[in-house]
Amino acid sequence: MTGRDLRLAPLALGCWLAAYAALTASSLRTAAILATSAGLAAVIFRQKRIVCLALIGVALGAGATGARLAIRDDPTITQLVRDKATITAQVVVRDDPRLLPGRTPSYLIDAELTRADELALGVPVLMIASGDGDWRSLLPGQRLAVTGRLGPTRGGDLKAAVLAVNRPPTLIGRAPWVQRAAGSLRAGLQKACAGLEPRRGGLLPGLVVGDTSRLPPEVQDDFKTAGMTHLTAVSGSNVAIVIGCLLLLLKALRASPAVCAAVCVVGVAGFVILARPSPSVLRAAVMGSLALAALATGRGRAALPALSATVAILVVVDPELAADAGFTLSVCATGGLLLLAPGWRDALQRRLPRFAAEALAVPAAAQVTCGPVVAGLSGSISLVAIPANLVATIAVAPATVLSVLAAAISPIWPAGARFAAWLASYPAAWLVTVARVASGFPGAALPWPSDTPGALLLAGLTVLVLVGFRSARVRRVVLIVGMAAVLGAAPVRVLAPGWPPPGWFVVACDVGQGDATVLRTRKGAAVVVDAGPEPSAVAGCLDRLGVTTVELLIVSHFHVDHVGGIVGVFRGRRVAAVLVPAWPEPVEGRTGVLAAAAAARSPVTVATPGEVRLIGPLAMTVIGPVSPLHGTRSDPNNNSIVLSVSFGGTSVLLTGDAEVEEQRELVATGVGRVDVLKVAHHGSAFQDPAFLTAVAPTIALVSVGAGNDYGHPNAAVLASLTRGGARVMRTDQVGDIAVAIDAGELTVTVRS
Fold first, then answer.
1. Mean per-residue pLDDT of the chain
2. Last residue of a domain, one of 116, 144, 175
3. How confident is the model at residue 493 (pLDDT cuts 50, 70, 90)?
4. Domain boundary among 52, 72, 92
5. Other CB atoms closer than 10 Å to residue 390's CB: what's the count?
6. CA 713 to CA 733: how far, in whole Å?
7. Do 488 and 499 sit in the same domain of this protein?
């Protein structure tokens, strides 16, 4: 890395880490202390340039975050949140509504709360909108009048509250023209792709604007396993591809540098309008333009200070980026393009043409630098990511450019847009095929320590490889440490003798963002608690376990992430009986359960507190809800059936989605320590600390979907369980999880 100008890197790093610390600490006091101490230290160490720049960065990051925290923690809004007040509010939509899984459409909407009743505010909130109303068509910048109930957030960001709305909004004026133009182009692209084969037609909008709403789930899974998920997110590579093609065209036409610069500026602006001028898109535009300029001019030395300054400026403008995985990946990818790609390209040019060398160097550099972040987020490393992305490279540019063309001409020439989308579907088919084939390789993804330790470990190994790969001693160290990390992260995943493991008695099925738990009663028979959000996932789990008879199907509550897959339990199996909660809502979920039971002629009964059921080796007691709970944050959740199960002296507690109110009632009744806990509500933040302390599980099972928009599981809840001595296992990281008894000891086996 000789010749690289890294002088501003300490400034950017200090700014980033300070903002992250202030955000995750969620404390204005923390931000103030960081900013003040950094400012004083910068004065003291003013002669130490690197130290001084780092401390100035800390002061900037902490100061900017502290200013936003002061707005978020305004006593006016915090009191309304504590009171869970129902308010008449005015909000401004800040990003596209995101559809939540479920039979009843609900949307997550980032918004700014500008007025609550008669109070003038200006704080960011997360709005959960359901019921009647055309929520999906809302555009960023649109002003609304709504009535909703305030609630607390999960923390770790700048949002002041969650605003739950179940009545139609009243539109105030129109969205800005830029957003209306973007909406028109995006809708035109969707229409142009509507007639294509679903996998191809669903992928093209993802390549251009990150819209994967119509991409089949199995294709998304293939892209994730193959390490190609970045292709379906708005990133700097989108900008680089589009502007790069513009530059090639202009150079072929022998345009002057001034014309090239002007057209590229217009191109970037057009991309921002198409993809939507949200913070993530603006970030991608900045990063992509920066990387492209560096590669086009060869001025990597000048680009690195520009990257560092850009990171610092973006974090100061929007401190939430400091904790945003997309921002981290963008910075890492851009850094890889600046630091690694030019050298690798030059080395490859000795044997390959320049265009081929660049086509290989760019994705390889991006994968290497993003690898540690991806490993930390997913708890796995993809062994096929680099070759898969290299093979996919030839199709990315034509698919992206043709899709952009389809979107651009869709308002004025719909037939031409459909033709461009049809042409783009062929390179899209190649990408789908590459992802499917790559994800199908045995060991395509290996276990790796998750979160920050895993990311730092892989980052360290990557640096060792890049710096000292010529040394045989370094190569041996990297190999040994890497193998130890893989085996230590999940030995059962590599060494387990098969599925299901001998002696299993409870399995948490990986059904995505939902719950499905299986309790073995005898060979081929089980009790099933909940059914997940869709039929195929729970049916597959039961098939793999060899369950042909369900002696009792228990529905903890009627939310779709627990009953949406109900027909998958009945499919090919006899269900002897069904137990449901007394709380009848949501009505749609209850109706679906009763219909499935009626079709199979399975009797349905309503659970009562204290009810005991003895089935085979299982002794099951309904311990919650103690009494009906009304007026809570979520009454269906807080009236979940809570089940205490005994299996040969081993205790299991299944909690549905019980939140703080129901958990407090359980503590009051004297709930005690258990061996296995199915963590309530997918590990959400709505947990009572006293409850977690009282149950003190040895094994904590978290049934949760990867990449969900709810912030599940909550990091503080997982940390609390770990501090209490629990071994925490998550379905989003390891797949199906089985707890067994082997020689009198509890064991955990996973099937990913």
1. 80
2. 175
3. very low
4. 72
5. 17
6. 11
7. no
Contacts 24+ apart (CB under 8 A), 290-297: 290/236, 290/334, 291/236, 291/240, 291/333, 291/334, 291/337, 291/338, 292/239, 292/240, 292/243, 292/244, 292/247, 294/337, 294/338, 295/240, 295/337, 295/341, 295/342, 295/358, 295/362, 296/244, 296/247
CA distance 336 to 290: 12
- Sorted by sequence, the CB contacts under 8 Å of residue 26 that are 6+ apart come out as 69, 155, 156
Residue 92 identity (one-letter amino acid):
V
Domain range spanning residue 35? 9-72
Residue 692 lies in a domain: yes
Residue 3 domain-assigned?
A: no
Gap between the Cα atoms of 344 and 359, Å rounded: 11
DSSP secondary structure of 247-284: HHHHHHTT--HHHHHHHHHHHHHHHHHHH-SSHHHHHH
In terms of average pLDDT, the best of 49-53, 265-269, 650-654 is 650-654
pLDDT band at residue 155 under the 50/70/90 scheme: low
| Statement to judge: residues 595 and 479 lie in one domain | no
pLDDT of 516 reads 95
Q: What is the spatial distance between Cα 346 and Cα 382, in angstroms, rounded to a whole number? A: 27
Q: Supply the pLDDT for residue 494.
A: 34
Instruction: Collapse the DSSP code of 234 into the 3-class scheme (helix H, G, I; strand E, B; otherwise coil) and give the result.
Output: coil
C-alpha–C-alpha distance, residues 296 and 261, integer Å: 12
How many angstroms separate the CA atoms of 476 and 492, rounded?
25
Could you report the per-residue pLDDT of 280-325, keeping only the tens digit for each? 566 666 665 665 555 455 455 566 787 788 888 888 888 888 877 7
Q: Which helix (H) or strand (E) holds 552?
A: strand 549-554
How big is the chain, counted in residues?
752
The answer to whether residues 206 and 221 belong to one domain is yes
| Rounded CA Rg of the chain | 27
Both tokens of 519, joined, read 């309790």
Does residue 583 sit in the same domain as residue 625? yes
Tell me the whole-structure pTM to 2 decimals: 0.60
Place of tokens 């150079």: 251
CATH number of the domain that residue 162 is part of: 2.40.50.140
618 and 525 part of one domain: yes
Determine the straight-line distance between the first and last CA of the chain, rounded to whole angstroms.
39
Look up the CATH number of the domain holding residue 736. 3.60.15.10
Same domain, 487 and 521: no
Phi/psi at 550 (5° precision): -105, 105
Same domain for 235 and 297, yes or no, is yes
pLDDT tops 60 at residue 208: yes
Burial class (CB in 10 A: 0-12, 13-18, 19+), 421: buried
The answer on 414 and 338 residing in a single domain is yes
Residue with more model confidence, 648 or 487: 648
